[in-house]
Amino acid sequence: MAIRARLSAPREIREDWPYHRLLSASLPASMLFAGDRRMEAENILASGFATKNAILAKRAGWSYLSDVAKTWQPNRLKGIQVSPDFGTPFLAATQVFDVRPVPRKWLSLERTGDHTQRFVPEGTILLTCSGSVGRATIADKSVQGILISHDLLRIEAKQPSDHGWIYAYLRAPTVRSMMTSARYGHMIKHLEVSHLDALPFVELDPDRKLEFDDIVKEILSSRNRAHGLVTFAEEEYTKAIGPRASEPMGQTGFTADASSIFGRGRRLDGNYYNPTARAAEIAVSAGGRKTEKVRDLVEAVFVPGRFKHVYGPEGLPYLDSAQVLEVAPDIEKYVLSLHAEKQAGYLVREGTLLLPCSGQLHGVIGNVVLAGKWHENKILTNHILRIVPKNKADIRIGYLQAVLSHPTLGRPRILRGTYGSSVPELSVRDIEDMAVPRLAGSVEDKIADAMEEAAMLTANANSLEDEVAEKAESILREFLLHKSGA
Description:
Shape: globular
Distance between the termini: 66 Å
Low-confidence stretches: none
Mean pLDDT: 89
Oligomer: single chain
Number of helices: 13
Radius of gyration: 26 Å
Structural class: alpha+beta
Number of strands: 19
Strand order of the largest sheet: 2-9-6-7
Largest sheet: 4 strands, antiparallel
Strand content: 5-15%
């Protein structure tokens, strides 16, 4: 009998038995009929379920999160989407975790119910409650004046002295596992306010609380300072270059001269000639300003090759394209398949520019990140283009980042070079050929100083996020092992 063609190779027939073991456990029936009466085996078998019960079994040293914090959620959003000229910017849940949140939707404020509850005060703890649940962050200045999705729970400490410890506690991996063990739903998982209220919360003495509060304040201060410095640098660059010659393209299309497609590149895709990018190119080279190619200013521009992804807990941390653009991303993958001699192309050093080169135009592709200490000793995906500075460069890497990442004079120029249908890509050649305007040395230094300090502050904030999570995890494990609370 003929065997039909398959999309993948047939599975190897296993004769040894059992070649897998069923994950199972027995527990008292009384556990199923207390509280919220959870019947899903997935939740009961999760490690977080056992941890939660281990804390609840102790007679002292803990309380419920509802005793120390107010957790609430706005009603489901029913907004009317309008143009940016008439609307208020809106962020989805995952966008709040971006180093630089960029709104993609604008809503009519008059038609948005309870809109005052959808603005988040600085310092509020936000926690995902749909999809990948239980991920926490702190609202900083980058989200001020922006409507925030109802898919984020708002958590406010009842006493200011508890704020830092609450945030650190929610960042601990073991606490995250307790939250995920309480989720429900088949395709899309959810957490409710009641699940957070019922979360056991380990108590801490005032001196240790103060330590966490100081660290969390430094995290927030670093992020706010970095946000302000990037804004300053972009304003200085705009003043030096001048505004674009025309407005961005609308929804009705655009035209281009036929002669323009017969140059060196012979690009036939319409996006290459879009007026937003053309206006940025004209502004950069206006007035006979001196420009130089990226390739002449840096040591190398390259994308490492593909590699076989084999993960395991003993490997090096792995970052994908989206994670380099996030604050304190969840690192859940560790690469085992790269030996020491093969790691060089995937590891980056401080001062390297990172540019995601694959993805949708409204997403990660074309953004530019300046690597800091936090990015070192991590495997970065081959979907990130690297721009390596020279040892004795005649251009500051912070200034080059500002040129490439500027929201109106930089990134549109990068995106015009994308190719591909389903998943747009960027080529090394297009980045190498980009023109970099040279300004007075004092102006370039001013812009570079701001961008480089912002990168250092962002990396420092990420390191502090890791630190508070590790410390909170250590305290929780000590509490679980300590018998006096039993």
